[in-house]
Every structure is written in structure tokens, then in C-alpha cells.
Design brief:
The complex is a heterodimer of chains A (about 300) and B (about 425).
Chain A: H1 16-28, E1 42-47, H2 53-64, E2 68-73, H3 85-95, E3 99-104, H4 109-116, E4 121-126, H5 132-145, E5 153-157, H6 164-175, E6 179-183, E7 200-203, H7 206-210, E8 215-218, H8 223-226, H9 233-240, H10 244-247, E9 255-257, H11 270-273, H12 280-298
Parallel strand pairs in A: 1-2, 1-3, 3-4, 5-6, 5-8, 6-7, 8-9
Helix pairs in contact in A: 1-5, 1-12, 2-12, 3-4, 5-6, 5-12
Chain B: E1 3-13, E2 18-27, E3 30-36, E4 46-49, E5 54-57, E6 59-64, H1 77-84, E7 89-94, H2 105-112, E8 121-126, H3 140-146, E9 150-152, H4 161-173, E10 177-180, H5 185-188, E11 193-194, H6 197-202, E12 206-207, H7 210-226, E13 229-232, H8 238-249, E14 254-258, H9 286-298, E15 303-304, H10 313-316, H11 333-344, H12 349-363, E16 380-390, E17 409-419, E18 422-426
Parallel strand pairs in B: 1-4, 1-5, 6-7, 7-8, 8-9, 9-10, 10-13, 11-12, 13-14, 14-15
Antiparallel strand pairs in B: 1-2, 2-3, 5-16, 16-17, 17-18
The chains are: A alpha/beta (about 300), B alpha/beta (about 425).
Chain lengths: ~300, ~425
């Protein structure tokens, strides 16, 4: 059975079977052994927001499958001249895009574009809403180390409120029966966050949250988002920084993840980022494989 | 002199306690007589046979944006009143957030001039502060003389305590109402919807209930201190409702309106970023919606008003967070009220007429309206509460089609709308 994907906008949109199919295909993908699976396909990378790993890995993924890519950014195009998102999408589609990979600062922008385009849209991050390819590559990474997602305790610590990565991860992990613990100060982890999906809980005490954790996922914390709130950078570090001592509270075989970009000395220490439990580089490598699988599925070339 | 006899209707005039098969005679823009069926035969040149439909005092919408002057691509006074008539509204009270802001007697008069081609009565609500900038009060006396029925900085709430206090005092001296869009904009900056599970899931900043209720509570305290009349526009939260309920118990001059969308829809209806469900105040939770219905039924809520807010396609078909706030409402208000409040919640028709006509007239002191008593204005809404129909937004008389109610099936609608004794719309 070949699951029909259409656009990839959010984790919730995917069936469990579709998620499993993407992960299975991603495991078979190898960026070092290029293929011509997407030969002749045109992939437009429409980036309204800065990005290093997502943009580069989508580009490498497309090229590893024989597709052609072109990058459109907000500062070097008609977008700067006030063209609407829908008009930009129509332009890109008319020029001949087979798929549009979009990063955008507004939540819901990928849904908006998908409503008006005939080509599929891959959401490469929309505001605080979703980052489905990250959720999928994170699941792939966890499954490289754990037998199954069911029953795992995954602690996501940091600025959950502003994080599309946290939302995509929690929705995917919850679907497969993992327990997701959102952890951070109240401004970053409001109580309402627990309503996101079944099995999601909120805990403001990192030391307690880490007890028995199988996966510790730290999120980027921007200094400017701490400014003007009830706590200082020092407070955040004191209570929520992932340190070697704190990692000891988790299970001995727990893995440490971070979607990047990592702010060393803020959300985690270098010892943890570069330590034996860290899977940060593996996540980035899996990003290319996962995005190869997503492109193949969305363009109907998966087999 | 023009005369018109409305025959075979069921007249419901709560202000005079009438609910009976009566005929209504209009002449010279006034109601001349209301008498048992047949008694007035032959007294008018023209007759309308309404065959059992409800004959009510004309509906009055306390909260409408007609966008003229300044934003004619969204709506004009002619097109907006053109949508009011099929909605059964004989009068619309229009908000001052035009371009320029209606903060002068000159603009107030300009809006009411015959050249605007309004087909229903237009009653301007003037700005409470110059340019609605929240700094200096406008000249309430001059505005009232020019025809303004109330003052408001709708959309730009008066947050400064002293300014709101002086506004209430100045308005009280002139027996005018201050209408407040209650929103603490210091808290809601950057927000696009209600704060709750849906806003969190969508990754959109949400407005907490307290941003509304804190301003309502403050305004009630000032109404108590000044003896002024504050009218809460589009009340949307259970906390604000509770505050109004308490204020009424304390016999303060506080009134409140609720929109049809706030007692019908909830924040979850935003779904996957549908901008037709984006308005301010935002759609709230189930608990809030249910509280509003209770407040309407128990009389805490005085009026239903539309907050008709037309926007062009290109202002809605953008990123959700950048989309304009607001939906149209003139053509769907009475149908929603009849379908939801009357048929589903069994609110009697005379109460519906109170909410849409009698009380709105009282709130803004529109004498001779909201009633069919002899001598009152010949503004009459005739509606069929049983008529089943489907709303098609593309057929709307408004210039804009931004409504979440496209394709909704309703039971009940206006069939004849009469303004000043003239039939301005007929189904």
C-alpha cells in the first residue's frame, strides 16, 4: 500500500500508517548513495525566515534524489516588494515548481498556501505552530536507540510555548504512546500546554521531570524572550539548564537531543552537548534521510 | 400623504404589551393606528398582506461598521444599509472608526446626508476622543446636536482611568451613552484569537478572558462613581457577564450587547487557521458561549448587535495572524437569533424583539423607535420565524463576503422591511 500524502503541513494531519511509512522509507535512504528517484523534479525552497540545517538538508535531500532545487528568500525577491504569500506561491507554481518547501514566521502560513496551490506544500516550519519534518527526524533518531516509542518518557525542556518543534514532537510521540513531559518556567510552559495531546503533562521542576526519562530534549532559549519576564538568564540556568549532574537523574541509557541551533551555556552545557548521550549530530544526519523520504512520498515517487 | 396598511399579521409590540392578530396603519412616516384585523380596511392607498408573519417594531443594530468615509472597498453606507434591510434592520448605529475617524459634527452630519443613499436609518456613534487617540475628549454636545446617539472609541478602548471617568461624566450630563470595546490592549498586543487549547495547538498568541473582564470591571466601578451610562460592546466572556450581572443587581446604569457569533461559535471553530472565524473579541470557549446564552435568557444581556465588520477578500486571504479582524453580520443576525435562541432555546418571540429592537432603542435613547405605539416612527420589521432557507454569502448585499455562516441553514428571516413608512425590502 502506498499512502497518499499530498501536502505535509502538520503531524496531526498524518495517519499512523503514513508516519510509519515515512520512517521506514527514511531508514532506507542514504544521502551518500545518490539516486535518480526524483530526476527532473523541481523543488522550490521558499524561505521567509533564516534557517541553516532545515534549508540545507532539504536541499541536499532533493539533490541526492536527482531533483533540481532553487531557493527563494524574503529579502531577495518580490516578497520584499509586498507581494502576498498566495501570489508568490502562484508565481512559483507557474514557473514550474513540483513541490514547495516553505519556512515562514507566521503560524498557519503553510495551511494557507496549501489551500490555494495545486502542487504539494511541505511545511519546513510555520511560526510557533508545526515543524513536521523535525518531528519525524526526531522519531527516527529516538528509534535508532529505543525499541519502540510506546512507554518512553520524553522530557522536552525549554521554551515550549514558542516552539514548533515541541508541538510537532509531542503530537507524534503521543500518537505512539510515549509520555511527554513539557518542562520549563511558567511563561515558557503554561498549564494549557498539557491539552496539546493525550499523554502530555506539564512539570515546572526539571529535577523531578527527569526522573526515569528515556529521552531529554532541550530547546533553544532566546535571551530576549527571558527579558522582561519574571526570571533572569541566571534563574533559567539555575533551574532548567541541562547539565551532566541533571542528566544523571534520567535513565542511564537516556539520550540527549536538541533541534538546534544550540546556545551553549544557556539551555545546556558543552559537556552535555558533546557528551556520550548526545544525539545532536545524529539528528542532523537523520534530517537529510527523513527529508529525502518526505520529498519522495510527497512527489509520489516512493516505492 | 403616503399611507400603508399592514394586514393579517401577528403584531408583537412588547413596549405596548400587544401580541395579537392586528392590522397596522402607517401614514406620514408614523404609526397611525394598530387595530384588530379588518377594522382599518380601506384607510390606506397601499396594503401589504403578510399572511400570519410577525409584525414587529423595526430592528435596531447597535454596532455596525459601514466603512464610509474612507474604506469604500469594504463597504459604503449605501451597500451596508442595503444589507441591513434584508436582515430586517431598520436602523443601524455606526461606529466612528472610519477614515477619517468620525470625531466631528461635520462628519456626523455628512454620514446622515441624503447623498449617502442609505435605505435604513443611520445613527452615528461618534468618537469619544479626538481621532480616537485616547487623549482629548471630543465635543459631546456638538456631536449630539449633529445626530450622534452615543460616543465610543470602538476598537481603541479607553484604558486611561481618568479619561474614561471624564467621558462618563460628560456623557451623563447630556444623557448620552459611552460604548466601550472592553479590551486591555496592553495585554492583547500580537494576539489573533482566544487564549486556550486551540490557540496553543495552533501556535497563535491568545487573548485571555481577563483582558476583557478587567476593563468591564473598571468601567462598572466608574459608572458607579459617575452615575454615567456605560454600554459594554460585544461582551464575550463569562467573567465580564458576571460583572454586568452584579452591576445590574446594584442598579447601575450598565448595559451590554452580545453578537450572534459569540453565542453560536467557539474558538475551536477556527480549525486550521480559517480567517472567517477571526474577529475581536475572539470566539471564546464552550463555557463562555454557554454563559452568554444563559445571560441572554436571564436578561443580563440587553441586546443582540452584529459588529458587522466587512473586509475585502485580500484582507482575509493572508496569513491568519495578519488577517483583518471581523466578520459581516447584518443579513445573518435575525436568522441566527431565530434559529438558535427561539427554536433551539425556546426564547419567546417577544423577548427576541426586546433584544433586537426595544432595548437597543432604550440604550441609545432613540425615542419613538422600538415600539409600534401610535405616533411612533413607521419602522417595521415583518419576519417569518418558520421560513427555512440557506444563506449564500455570494448573494450578500454587503460589498464584503467575510462570514463564517456561508451555507448555513436557518429557520426564520425577515420578509418585509419598512423604514419611515416605505417598504425598503421585500423577500
Amino acid at each position: 500500500m502506498k499512502p497518499q500524502l499530498g501536502s505535509l503541513l502538520s503531524i496531526n494531519q498524518l495517519t499512523t500508517e503514513q508516519i510509519e511509512a515515512i520512517l521506514a522509507l527514511a531508514r532506507r535512504m542514504d544521502p551518500d548513495r545518490p539516486s535518480q528517484l526524483l530526476h527532473g523534479k523541481r523543488v522550490v525552497l521558499l524561505f521567509y525566515e533564516a534557517s541553516t540545517r532545515t534549508r540545507t538538508s532539504f536541499e541536499f535531500a532533493a539533490k541526492a534524489l536527482g531533483a533540481v532545487t532553487t531557493l527563494v528568500t524574503a529579502t531577495s525577491s518580490s516578497i520584499e516588494k509586498g507581494e502576498s504569500l498566495i501570489d508568490t506561491g502562484w508565481t512559483v507554481e507557474s514557473i514550474g515548481a513540483d513541490v514547495i518547501v516553505m519556512r515562514h514566521p507566521n503560524s498557519g502560513s503553510a495551511h494557507l498556501l496549501a489551500r490555494y496551490m495545486t502542487v504539494p506544500i511541505i511545511n519546513a516550519g510555520d511560526g510557533m505552530h508545526q515543524h513536521p519534518s523535525q518531528g519525524l527526524l526526531d522519531a527516527l533518531t529516538i528509534l535508532n536507540h529505543k525499541k519502540e516509542l510506546r512507554g518512553l518518557r520524553v522530557v522536552i525542556v525549554g521554551d515550549v510555548y514558542h516552539s514548533r518543534v515541541a508541538r510537532s514532537n509531542a503530537e507524534l510521540l503521543s500518537r505512539f504512546g510515549a509520555e511527554v513531559v513539557f518542562c520549563g518556567p511558567r511563561d515558557f510552559v503554561p498549564e494549557i500546554a498539557a491539552t496539546l495531546a493525550p499523554g502530555v503533562v506539564v512539570n515546572h521542576d526539571l529535577n523531578a521531570a527527569l526522573q526515569g526519562a528515556d529521552v531529554v530534549m532541550a530547546l533553544r532559549v532566546q535571551k530576549e524572550r527571558l527579558a522582561g519576564r519574571h526570571h533572569s538568564v541566571e534563574d533559567y540556568i539555575a533551574h532548567y539548564q541541562v547539565t551532566p549532574q541533571r542528566m544523571k537523574l534520567a535513565k542511564p541509557d537516556a539520550i540527549l537531543m536538541h533541534p538546534g541551533p544550540v546556545i551553549r551555556g544557556m539551555e545546556l552545557t558543552s559537556e552535555v552537548a558533546d557528551g556520550p548521550q548526545s544525539c545532536i549530530h545524529e539528528q542532523v544526519r537523520n534530517g537529510v534521510k527523513t527529508r529525502m523520504a518526505i520529498l519522495a512520498m510527497v512527489l509520489g515517487a516512493a516505492h | 400623504m403616503e399611507s400603508l396598511l399592514i394586514q393579517r399579521g401577528r403584531v408583537i409590540d412588547p413596549a405596548s404589551g400587544v401580541d395579537a392578530q392586528m392590522d397596522v396603519l402607517l401614514r406620514g412616516g408614523r404609526v397611525v393606528d394598530v387595530a384588530p384585523a379588518g377594522k382599518l380596511r380601506g384607510q390606506a392607498k397601499q396594503t401589504v398582506n403578510v399572511r400570519g408573519a410577525i409584525v414587529a417594531p423595526g430592528l435596531i443594530d447597535l454596532h455596525v461598521h459601514l466603512r464610509e468615509p474612507g474604506q469604500l472597498h469594504k463597504e459604503t453606507i449605501a451597500s451596508g444599509t442595503g444589507a441591513a434591510a434584508p436582515g430586517g434592520f431598520t436602523s443601524v448605529c455606526v461606529m466612528p472608526n472610519t477614515l477619517p475617524v468620525n470625531d466631528s459634527a461635520e462628519i456626523t452630519r455628512w454620514m446622515q446626508a441624503p447623498q449617502r443613499s442609505a435605505i435604513v436609518n443611520v445613527f452615528p456613534i461618534a468618537a469619544a476622543t479626538v481621532g480616537s487617540a485616547g487623549e482629548k475628549l471630543t465635543n459631546f454636545a456638538a456631536l449630539k446636536k449633529a445626530g450622534a446617539v452615543a460616543v465610543s472609541d470602538d476598537g481603541k478602548p479607553i484604558l486611561d482611568d481618568r479619561l474614561m471617568r471624564t467621558a462618563l461624566q460628560a456623557a451623563a450630563r447630556l444623557k448620552m451613552t459611552v460604548v466601550q470595546h472592553a479590551e486591555d490592549t496592553r495585554v492583547t498586543a500580537g494576539c489573533s484569537m482566544n487564549y486556550g487549547a486551540t490557540s496553543f495547538r495552533l501556535g497563535v498568541h491568545g487573548m485571555p478572558n481577563s483582558a476583557e473582564s478587567s476593563v468591564v470591571e473598571r468601567d462598572i466601578a466608574l459608572a458607579r462613581a459617575t452615575k454615567g451610562h456605560v454600554h459594554v460592546a460585544h461582551l464575550s466572556t463569562r467573567e465580564a457577564l458576571e460583572a454586568v450581572r452584579a452591576a445590574k443587581k446594584a442598579k447601575l446604569r450598565v448595559t451590554a450587547e452580545v453578537t450572534p457569533h459569540h453565542f453560536t461559535l467557539i474558538d475551536e471553530n477556527v480549525g486550521e487557521f480559517n480567517a472567517h472565524y477571526k474577529m475581536n473579541p475572539p470566539l471564546r470557549s464552550v463555557a463562555d458561549r454557554d454563559a452568554l446564552i444563559e445571560g441572554i435568557i436571564d436578561g443580563t444581556i440587553d441586546a443582540i448587535a452584529t459588529d458587522h465588520a466587512p473586509h475585502a477578500f485580500h484582507e482575509k486571504q493572508v496569513e491568519f495572524e495578519r488577517a483583518a479582524f471581523g466578520i459581516t453580520g447584518l443579513e445573518t443576525a435575525l436568522p441566527i437569533v431565530l434559529t438558535v435562541l427561539h427554536h433551539h432555546f425556546k426564547l419567546p418571540l417577544w423577548r427576541i424583539i426586546e433584544l433586537l429592537s426595544v432595548n437597543p432603542a432604550k440604550i441609545f435613547g432613540l425615542t419613538g423607535r422600538g415600539t409600534l405605539a401610535k405616533g411612533s416612527h413607521a419602522d417595521i420589521t415583518i419576519f417569518d420565524p418558520k421560513k427555512k432557507w440557506t444563506f449564500d454569502a455570494s448573494q450578500s448585499m454587503s460589498k464584503s463576503k467575510n462570514t463564517p455562516f456561508d451555507g448555513w441553514n436557518f429557520t426564520g428571516r425577515a420578509v418585509v422591511t419598512i423604514v419611515g413608512g416605505n417598504v425598503v425590502w421585500e423577500a
